Amino acid sequence: MKQVIAMHGWSSDGTVWEAWTRSFQHHGWHWVNGERGYGGRNPVAPVWSAPPDPTAPQRRAVIAHSLGPHLLDASVLAQATDAVLLASFGRFVPAGRQGRALRAGLEGMRCAIGSPGEAAMLQTFLQRAAAPTDVSALPPSPGSQGLTAAGRERLRADLDRLSTTNGLPPGLPASARVLIVEAECDAIVTPEASRCLRSELDNLLEQAPEHWLLPNVGHALLMPDLLTHVRQWLEQDIGQPG
Question: What is the reported pTM?
Answer without folding.
Answer: 0.95
